[in-house]
Amino acid sequence: MSAVPLRNDKAAASGVRRVTVLGATGSIGDSTMDLLRAAPERYQVEALTANTNVDGLVKLAMEFRARFVAVADESRLGELRAALAGTGIESGAGDSAIIEAAQRQSDWLMAAVSGAAGLKPALAAVDRGATIALANKECLVCAGDFFMQRAAQSGACILPADSEHNALFQALGSGNREELTRVIITASGGPFRTWAAADIEQATLEQALKHPNWSMGQKITIDSASMMNKGLEVIEAAYLFALSPDQIDVLVHPQSIIHGMVEFRDFSVMAQLGSPDMRTPIAHCLGWPDRIPGRAAPLDLAKVGTLTFETPDYARFPGLKLAFDALRTGNGVTTVYNAANEIAVAAFIAQKIRFGAIARLVEATMNDWVRAGNLAPLSSADDAIAIDHRAREMAATLLPQIAAKAF
Ligand code: NAD
Ligand code: MG
Question: What's the topology of domain 199-226+313-407?
């Protein structure tokens, strides 16, 4: 059975639900806590985690009376323990504490750490057969098929929380798997949708951080500007729903009202619509298999007025095409795509490379990786993590020459 549930897997949930939020202090964490706050009688918070933000974590821990909190940065343990003294809230620090948070029994877990750092904690939740709302797309891109196989083996239930994938998840319920012909994920096109290639090349950090529709964490906002985010999402969709690259289309839709569509063989197309607010897909995951009251603004299509669509431009956004290349090559190359992109985004934020160099660094890393004959299917999380590390090193080595190249 697939780890992403089918519509007829429905069985009503009842009673108080014990929930854990990995990455509670981030943008998705914030939206998740907002939904929990709206119905405190329904939820008991088991565990919350953060990277370094002790203040934010403690505030949430106190508000929600969490049982356990963990901070990834080990040097912050003293500070965390002091702030929680006398509260009875257990705490820990370091990667092992984040994993402990994932392992503790809960009825529902939000995986919202950013980047490949989220892989091991998400797998820890998978291995206890948890119900997981998966926002952390990089962990899926990094571990690919292996992640989904492990979920199928353990009986974990993966609920897609990324808005496009949540839309597909909802729309897929309208037909059977054999009747599906393709899925369409929409992209806002980001802040540079109408920019000339030469201007995109020189875009500043401030410009890249101005997303027209969505308010999100820094890394994903830059990925949206480069359309690398859509590339990661193409790969995420392929693994989540076991689709071939030819079954996945990307459609630029600047209003971000339709999040995803599924086409069946009679050419009926089912779409999910909603205001661009992550609280809607998160609410769908949190309530699943029921529906709970949402927190986003209800959709007012008359006010939106017009929905428009464009074909993505691979020439101006080469990172999107690279995702399809990575998926077609398989054998760990999607892991390389993600790792090189994480290095490139960090270098762009540190102003070591121009915006246009992000995709060039990813392409150069993928090419060198394939040329070196490093291709083999992933068979463990350690495999994925080893590829991730080697690809990061390769990207870091290529960085100076990519940075120096004039365009
Ligand atoms: P963010 O940067 O706002 O938050 C990330 C969270 O993870 C924070 O709580 C941070 O403390 C924690 N974290 C970061 N590095 C860590 C590490 N090494 N170890 C442990 N914890 C760590 O990011 P976000 O925008 O909330 O995105 C989280 C994930 O959800 C990403 O994978 C992103 O692609 C995905 N996602 C985000 C959105 C969105 O609207 N923000 C939409 C869809 C998917
Ligand atoms: Mg998305």
Answer: Rna Polymerase Sigma Factor; Chain: A (1.10.1740)
| Nearest ligand 1 atom, CA 117 | 18
For the chain, which residues make up each domain, given as ranges? 17-162, 199-226+313-407
Give distance in angstroms: CA of 112 to centre of ligand 1.
Answer: 5
Asked whether residue 11 carries a pLDDT value surpassing 60, the answer given is no
Ligand 1 contact via 398 beta carbon (within 6 Å)? no
pLDDT digits (tens, 9 = 90+) for 182-203: 999 999 999 999 999 999 999 9
Sequence-ordered alpha helix ranges (H) in 333-372: 333-349, 357-371
pLDDT tens digits, one per residue of 312-363? 999 999 999 999 999 999 999 999 999 999 999 999 999 999 999 999 999 9
* 302 Cα to the center of ligand 2, angstroms: 24
* 387 C-alpha to ligand 1 centroid (Å): 21
Q: Please, which residues have CB within 8 angstroms of residue 176's CB and are 6 or more apart in sequence?
A: none
- Residue (of 251, 292, 267, 269) closest to 172 by Cα position: 269
Does ligand 1 come within 6 angstroms of the Cβ of 29? yes
First vs last Cα of the chain: how many Å apart?
49
- CATH 3.40.50.300 is right for the domain spanning 17-162: no
